[in-house]
Amino acid sequence: MSPPAQPSTPDTSTRLALWLPPAVLAAVLLATASRYGLHRDELYFIACAHHLSWGYPDQGPLTPLIAAAMTALAPGSSWALRLPSALAAALTVRLAGRTAQELGGQHRGQLLAECVTAVASIVLVTGHLLNTSTFDLLVWTGALWLAVRAVLREQPRTWLWVGLVIGIGLLNKPLPAFLAAAICLSIAISGPRQLLRTAWFWAGAVAAAGLAVPFIWWQAAHGWPQLTVSRAIAHGGSTSSQPGWAVLPFQLLLVSPVLAPVWIAGLLALFRRPEWRAVRFVGWTWLVLAVVFTAAGGKPYYLAGMLPVLVAAGAVRCEAWLAASPVRAGAARYRAGLLYTAIALSAVVCSIIGLPVLPASQAGPVVAVNPDAGETIGWPAFAATVAGVTQQVGEPGTVVFTRNYGEAGALQYYRHRAGLPARIFSGHNGYGTWGPPPPGAVPVVVVGYSPDAAGRWFTGCAVRTHFHDPAGIDNEENGVAILVCRGPRTSWAAEWDQLRHLN
């Protein structure tokens, strides 16, 4: 086997230059952080921040804890709420460059890895919002960088750090467990198999499991709701669910179509390049996870955490491609121009798709490509519409019950401005664990259900109005019905188990 690639040691000016793409990305994300509004998931995380726990039906405690910290520091500031995500995205970009360095990339290769990662649509979309996916991407990138470093530098103790990073990630969401299992299986398939007999490797596994114990304990105590959520996602129960066959084609979009050849070249090189034989398990890890997520019906972005390491490998190959002796004069400049044009084009297109660049009234085409953009528009108007119905009812015991956590989170967040009741209720995911309204709380303003659906649990339901987004955005709430019902058919306590739902 060829000796492992030796990472280069950049000088001070080079190190500073390698911080430029992360810094520019963070600046762009923060400059656009206050445009449009909060995402439905962010509103949910803020609600979770008022019910801090070691677990929730659909996630671990990490992101709600971050939401709690940022809202305590700067209540009502979307800029502050999204600051951790911008920093996480910037660090993901920097780690892509560090991974390229471990794989033998020189300054140009490291800078290419960072630039391609910085303009990737998945990095821009997740970096703009406070979301579990943002920190999941960072966890995967960090764990894989450390794994590559541990093998190529022959530092077995680094596997303990791999385990610690994965363990922290498990307090965010369960996906890093798939990464850990896939790494172990891939090492067994392709080597270096001696790692499986190394105490430090298994110390990392123990560290990861140990950090995850509080979340696992919470899930066990509550009947493993995360498994129900996962099954619902696999059967299309989530708004971002896709059929299993879409997992692989979707990977072409997560960086950008014109830059997909970079990470594909990196994936192929991990299997074919002799000097990367020791880290071939990284390529196998991608392959194992692609098969698992396709078969299990996982969301296409579940594989996104593999992209920075593949981009890093591809950037090292691109560096060699750009430095190759041209067959004829000008070929090197043509190659460089082609690559830099692809990066610039991706930066423009992915920014328009992933960030609130266009006015909200002109965001319709963007929402058609990136539905998450539509879920940040119209919430104040939505809250005002529901508040108008509650004020028409005019009874002091009126409660509001919504179909999903996005609606509940928005009404809770904007309740003071809109004049809504102090507490908003829903049976969806975490809201379902926080309990029903108090006994005798009637009448009920029911949001998001059809009259027939609401009639299963409530009596005397009548539609009062429908919400229509003032910007004309066709998001999940556009057109939903707002009903007034006399109350639950029996009692809130008796109906609550039927009103709860997970997806």
Would you mind describing this structure in some detail?
Helix 5 (78-102) packs across helix 16 (307-323), helix 9 packs antiparallel against helix 10 (175-190) and helix 10 (175-190) packs across helix 15. It contains 25 helices and 7 strands. The chain has 2 domains: 33-354, no CATH class; 379-499, no CATH class. The strands form 2 sheets. The protein has a 5-stranded mixed β-sheet, with helices on one face. A two-stranded antiparallel ribbon has the order 4-7. The chain has helices spanning 12-18, 20-31, 40-49, 62-73, 78-102, 107-118, 121-128, 132-152, 158-170, 175-190, 199-221, 225-234, 247-254, 260-272, 280-296, 307-323, 331-354, 364-369, 371-374, 379-393, 405-413, 415-418, 430-433, 451-454, 492-499, and strands at residues 399-402, 424-426, 444-447, 458-459, 462-466, 481-485, 487-488. Residues 1-5 have low confidence and may be disordered. The longest helix has 25 residues, at 78-102. The protein starts with 11 loop residues before the first helix and ends with a helix. Helices cover 60% and strands 5% of the residues. It has 503 residues and is mostly helical.
Task: Chart the SSEs and their pairings.
Layout lengths: L11 H7 L1 H12 L8 H10 L12 H12 L4 H25 L4 H12 L2 H8 L3 H21 L5 H13 L4 H16 L8 H23 L3 H10 L12 H8 L5 H13 L7 H17 L10 H17 L7 H24 L9 H6 L1 H4 L4 H15 L5 E4 L2 H9 L1 H4 L5 E3 L3 H4 L10 E4 L3 H4 L3 E2 L2 E5 L14 E5 L1 E2 L3 H8 L4
Parallel strand pairs: 1-2, 1-3
Antiparallel strand pairs: 3-6, 4-7, 5-6
Helix pairs in contact: 2-5, 3-4, 3-21, 4-5, 5-6, 5-7, 5-8, 5-16, 6-16, 7-17, 8-9, 9-10, 9-11, 10-15, 14-15, 14-16
